[in-house]
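Changelog excerpt

This revision adds worked examples to the README so contributors can see how folded entries look when concatenated. The first example is reproduced verbatim below.
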Amino acid sequence: MFRLALPLAISAVAHVAFGAPYTPSGGLGTNSTPPMYAPMSDFDYQSLSLALYQEYIELDLFHYGLAKFSTDDFEAAGLNAEDRYLIEFMADQEVGHATLISNILGTGAAKQCNYTYPFESVRDFVDFCQKLTRFGESGVYGFLEHLDSRPAATLLLESITTEARQQMIFRQFEGLFPMPEWFIPAITQSMAWTLLAPYISSCPDNNTHLEWQNFPALQITNNPNASVLTNETGPAITHNRTVPLSSPGMTVNLTWEDPGKPVGPNGAYNTSTSAGEAKYVAWVSQLNTTFTELMVLGNNSGSTVQPGGNIYGDNTFPTINGTIFIMITDNSPYVTPFNLTMLNQHVVAGPAMYQSG
């Protein structure tokens, strides 16, 4: 009896599992219902609006850098006419991305703003671009899988994969190894907004007011310098460095601001935190958030030590590499890439971008 029942049971499972030809059961949005490419919640609208603010600054930044510096400036940095055209093309890509998100959001979508930038050389322009595109990319990864509108998430995915390529190109322009990681970390909307808002000086009065939190700023006073001026490598497809920018055991010096500082467009936002005493440094990197102890050295200053460890254990790959995120926290909760928002309530200051490789 058992020998006869088993094939019957398997057949029944197979019948349930395959509701349509060549289509396993399950999945989202796989039926014939027409997709609606629009926000389905306030969470969607606010997340997509944050992404739009990011696309706008990239569009402005790429054009600004090309206009600010002369041909001779770019040539001295090792970037020729073809390289400059690639930056121009990346700006054109941002036109497409901003148009896409504006169309999803509808008539109330935010408009482009005015910006301030922290560079005075081509090399620093390139460095800022690779950092800005990294937190733009990671910021979308952090909310993409949480959107209620799966159709909107599909379109946004097709734009953010382009931005990932931009980030790698700017690393190549900077003379860095193009992709020194196995996985790209995600960050939350509040973390991304904290990094973005200080560079937006003003916006149209009727622009969307973002609800995401602005954490107090964190500075790394001895951040590894990725500039080709100090590392003696020029633009190239790849550079395999014999001397890394950072390594486990290095002391990292930090300073941070108190909450309550006006920030962002028109000073319309204020930094805040719900965290307690500063005790740890969180390192958000590949599939992992690692915590190290913070040694408080004075008023809003301290240090920690860069952690080691490999993604899957010995003989795999260092967890800390590339352009990653660190922040000061009051606790060391266990979080994963999918529930990183559980860390927001513990952030004292940050994130800051750490150039580990």
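The second example, added in the same revision:
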Amino acid sequence: MAMEDNTSSIPSKRATSLSDPLISHRCHFGRTVFTLCNYPSLLTNGILRLEKMEETPLEDFTAEEQWEHCVFKQLLDSYPGLLERLRNGSEEEILHVGELIGKGTSGARGDDTKSLKSAILDWISPKGAAIQPPLHRNSKIDCGFNHELTGSLLCPAGLDWHNSETRENLHSGEISVCGDQWPVFLYANHIYDTEDPWCSLLRSRLLTCAYKHVFTSPSSVDKDPKATRSRNACLHGMNCVTTASNAYIATQVRFALSSSSVLSQTDTSTDSETFYHSLLDLFEDPDELKEFSELLIWWNCQVFPTSSATKRPISVNSALSKIRIKHLAAKHAADSNVAIASS
């Protein structure tokens, strides 16, 4: 959604407040485009890269630099006038703007972390019973692999939590869990198919509850989806699920279940940054486009059922399906010819 150009009067550090648009609007940017980011560095590198691109095309930069520039461009597009202010500003002003944006994203992340910590205990509680032994809402020391329930949800897919040796090694830290070892709670009904790792991935009820809690409203978690939107989604004109927002919620839920007390870019105990990036890497992999497209359709049906982004599967043997198949076949043949010509 286009935003008003408020960058013409970027405030001084003394005038900065939580109501500043660079803070409030960037809350949403962190949730839906990119979080766990060093924004002063993102802006500084982006401006320098734009100067280099006057002589060097973006394709000649490293994959990481190209990806970072994509995030930088999305930030500029979401805030008209920001690029001009950055180009005309001093190095100190650029860093100051980055700090304001970082303040907005970290503040929103902290609010979500605090809100989800308690809510998730309600969602994972056995129906009609209390969690045993109890998990306290104001302390996380007993969470993570220290508790049977949270440990079973955080157990990496492919490992057997019910195996006493595995359970003990996870509890003691003998088995170190990296961020790219995805927990079983990401899967519907917490069931992982070793033969088809995509099957039910990122379709768990726990994730949809958390997504609605943050983006629509806490009250929408236990109700059928409505045509109306509220809270963060409505405030920012959001009517479809984004790849980054999906990864953001998964990261928040994973952290909420853990025993770690701080969610940040430097959080090494839960390796949250690696986890977040591993999901984004999957979503942006061209080879996974079919599976990911189906996943987004599923998510939009859960959260924004009336949105135009909620596309229904194409009917088999319909004229449209045959047109799509013919197009894909032609594209595949063209790609094959290019590969042969370049070999």
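Reviewer comment on example two: The first helix runs from residue 21 to 32. The radius of gyration is 22 Å.
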